[in-house]
């Protein structure tokens, strides 16, 4: 399966990956978002649900037949073996569907959004360039709390399971600073979009 020229977009929880991806999409990039793929796989009648039910029983299954994400989050944080089982089911399906969507793109380049891109060498090999959305950790925590209502210790536990800010920045080819208001993103995205168009045409 061939793929177009691909930019991997990543950042810690609450960094603003979705806002950045929306701006690249508005400029004509194809966006393939692994979080959206995961949500589709774990929706009612999603392709991952039979295997998840077989592996975990009805405990983390919501009444509508979708994955109860809060229940699953609590389960995998308490049990590394459960996390491994979950990833063993979801990750191959996400990789397969994201590869299909990338190959189907008819745009100059693809923006592949992967929250744990830096943590996974496999994802990195599928990207020609890596763009990191960055902001201070205190701002990440505040944004996640405002969005999801999680307590600060829960947000910090999620962040601790991800690459550190320093590790992401060290891996980056390009960095988008999202510490300010959303309006500051447009000029940064404009500049990178122009750069990516040029690189993709080489």
From TrEMBL:
Gene Ontology MF: a single term: ATP binding
Reaction(s) this enzyme catalyzes, per UniProt: 3'-dephospho-CoA + ATP = ADP + CoA + H(+)
Localization (cell): Cytoplasm
The keyword Nucleotide-binding is annotated on this UniProt entry: yes
InterPro entries: Depp_CoAkinase (IPR001977), P-loop_NTPase (IPR027417)
Main location: cytoplasm
Residues the record lists as binding ATP: 14-19
One GO location term (cellular component): cytoplasm
Pathway named in the protein's UniProt entry: Cofactor biosynthesis; coenzyme A biosynthesis; CoA from (R)-pantothenate: step 5/5
Domain of life: Bacteria
A single GO BP: coenzyme A biosynthetic process
EC number(s) on file: 2.7.1.24
Top class in the EC scheme: transferase
Keyword set includes Kinase: yes
Alphabetical keyword list: ATP-binding, Coenzyme A biosynthesis, Cytoplasm, Kinase, Nucleotide-binding, Transferase
Recorded family membership: Belongs to the CoaE family.
Function: Catalyzes the phosphorylation of the 3'-hydroxyl group of dephosphocoenzyme A to form coenzyme A.
Protein name: Dephospho-CoA kinase
Organism: Pseudothauera nasutitermitis
